[in-house]
Design a protein that fits this description.
Shape: globular
Distance between the termini: 15 Å
CATH superfamily: Metallo-dependent phosphatases
Order of helices and strands: EHEHEEEHEEEHEEEEEE
Structural class: alpha/beta
CATH architecture: 4-Layer Sandwich
Number of strands: 14
Largest sheet: 6 strands, mixed
Radius of gyration: 16 Å
CATH class: Alpha Beta
CATH topology: Purple Acid Phosphatase, chain A, domain 2
């Protein structure tokens, strides 16, 4: 039987939307949890830790609280998002590293690009293209692949994902999970790669949403408030 993983989107320390997600994960039953970044609250914003030490402390505490709640249910792997600090560390952090979860090889790619807004963890496409990505089963990314339903900003009818992430997906026959674009949860194919955006829990456009993978051959996303669900199988 294939391992089942829960995919948790951009929490931004929104515990009111996280709690129903945790209840759903417990109800479904999983072997592990992947968290796609933007974990903590907005206390830090564009400030550096040195300029805002009190807010930095609040921010770190919110991350620890989110990860602790997830870890009560199953082992967790995570990457920092663009609102998070690149140098975050802790159990389960797999940015730029290959880790194993429930028998699946997971490689993490944190941060977001190519657009830059002055948030702590942003990159250019060529930075990502220089990354040496090993053979793996699941790519755990914050940013979505470009020109897919997962990177669409409906208010502007604009795709804002990463071309470099898409290139990785095109050469990958496993699964890719992401977040970043809160309002575009769903699943789609990029070549042979099953791609899943879990959707954002925090503002803007936050809602209690959660994704699931069964191995790399089945993925689905649920909106727990509306009952909307989308699923793909290989």
């Amino acid at each position: 039987m294939s391992p089942r993983l829960a995919i948790v989107g951009d929490v931004h320390a929104s515990f009111s939307t996280l709690e129903p997600v945790l209840e759903r994960i417990e109800q479904v039953g999983v072997d592990g949890i992947l968290q796609v970044g933007d974990i903590g609250g907005h206390q830090l914003g564009r400030r550096s830790p040195e300029r805002a030490p009190y807010r930095y402390g609040q921010y770190l505490a919110s991350i620890q609280r989110v990860l602790a709640r997830l870890g009560e249910l199953a082992p967790v792997l995570w990457v920092p998002g663009n609102h998070d600090l690149k140098g975050l560390s802790g159990p389960g952090q797999t940015d730029g590293q290959l880790s194993e979860l429930a028998g699946l090889r997971v490689f993490g790619i944190g941060g977001a690009g190519p657009d830059r807004f002055g948030f702590p963890y942003e990159w250019d496409e060529d930075d990502l293209r220089a990354l040496r990505v090993p053979e793996c089963d699941v790519l755990l990314c914050h940013a979505p692949p470009r020109d897919t339903p997962l990177d669409l900003v409906p208010a502007r009818n604009e795709h804002v994902g990463s071309a470099a992430i898409r290139e990785l997906a095109e050469g990958h026959s496993g699964a890719l999970v992401c977040g970043h674009i809160h309002e575009s949860p769903g699943v789609c194919w990029v070549g042979e790669c099953l791609c899943l955006n879990a959707g954002g829990l925090g503002s803007p456009w936050g809602a209690p949403r959660v994704g699931f993978l069964e191995g790399v051959d089945r993925g689905w996303v649920e909106d727990l408030r509306t009952g909307w669900r989308q699923e793909l199988r290989r």
